[in-house]
């Protein structure tokens, strides 16, 4: 699958000396949903704003659907839609007027049919003659998305699109994002809701302190970095973990009635894993009455990555 966004050696240092981005290299595939995760101040919004032409980079290049965002600014911008975190729009304008105006800003000719489709897809058509100030926060968020889609972009940036909206509306927006992707729109999503990325993303990028620390297929990332845990409910309690089980990372809980085994599911070396543990327990005469397994979520992986100490100790 070809890249619709290509970012090469991108950096950003502000006049204050703060280095917001440190040599970012990233390709986003056409038609994918890419989730960019990171703590506050990690550089997510700076990166998005550079690609969207709002902030100027210190060095590096960005291509949007083959167009350099500096040399071919107008053509590049026509390919991109942006839904920012903040709700910036004219409070006294109607929904229909503000969305139609956004289309004109990008040099697109009037097309009432396109505007109607966008508004209907976002459940805004019945609100088209309402002024923005009369809408709920969730509806205002939908208007921002409609404004971003009015000029028919092929790339859509959603910067915290569900911040401050209720769970039901979040679910509705997830469905809308999937339908956009089905129609060929590439989605780049930043979010504080890890379940949002876990639910929708094809690939995950984690940024921290201005650096991309991982970019990976979601399924591969969870398999590669996800930990599994086995809990064994013992027939008889143990006072300590027997020396014969010292090769395994085991922990006694529930007053010795539960044995917990944390392991990496991707590591299958001889003598490790659930099967080897159960064999060893059988040899030692340790019996159990029940067992269950659980796997770390994307949130666990994210927290682990962000708080991992750099190799150079800095």
Beta content: 25-35%
Q: Biggest β-sheet: count, sense, barrel?
A: 6 strands, mixed
Low-confidence stretches: 309-314
The radius of gyration over CA amounts to 25 Å
State the fourth-level CATH superfamily of the largest domain.
Answer: P-loop containing nucleotide triphosphate hydrolases
- What percentage of residues falls in helices of 4 or more residues? 25-40%
Order of helices and strands: EEEHEEHEHHHEHEHEEHEEEHEH
State the total count of DSSP E strands.
14
Helix segment tally: 10
As laid out across the biggest beta sheet, the strand order is 6-7-8-3-9-10
Mean pLDDT: 85
Distance linking N and C termini: 37 Å
Structural class: alpha/beta
Name the overall outline: elongated
Written account of the structure:
The chain is an alpha/beta fold. It has 2 domains: 3-223, P-loop containing nucleotide triphosphate hydrolases (Rossmann fold); 227-295, Alpha-Beta Plaits (2-Layer Sandwich), CATH 3.30.70. The chain is built from 10 helices and 14 strands. A 6-stranded mixed beta sheet has the order 6-7-8-3-9-10, sandwiched between helices. A 4-stranded antiparallel beta sheet has the order 2-1-4-5. A 4-stranded antiparallel beta sheet has the order 12-13-11-14. The longest helix is centred in the middle third of the chain and has 16 residues, at 167-182.
Secondary-structure blueprint:
Layout: E1 3-13, E2 19-29, E3 33-37, H1 44-51, E4 59-64, E5 67-68, H2 73-78, E6 80-83, H3 95-105, H4 112-121, H5 137-149, E7 155-159, H6 167-182, E8 186-190, H7 194-200, E9 203-208, E10 211-217, H8 218-225, E11 227-234, E12 250-253, E13 258-264, H9 274-284, E14 288-295, H10 298-306
Parallel strand pairs: 3-8, 3-9, 6-7, 7-8
Antiparallel strand pairs: 1-2, 1-4, 4-5, 9-10, 11-13, 11-14, 12-13
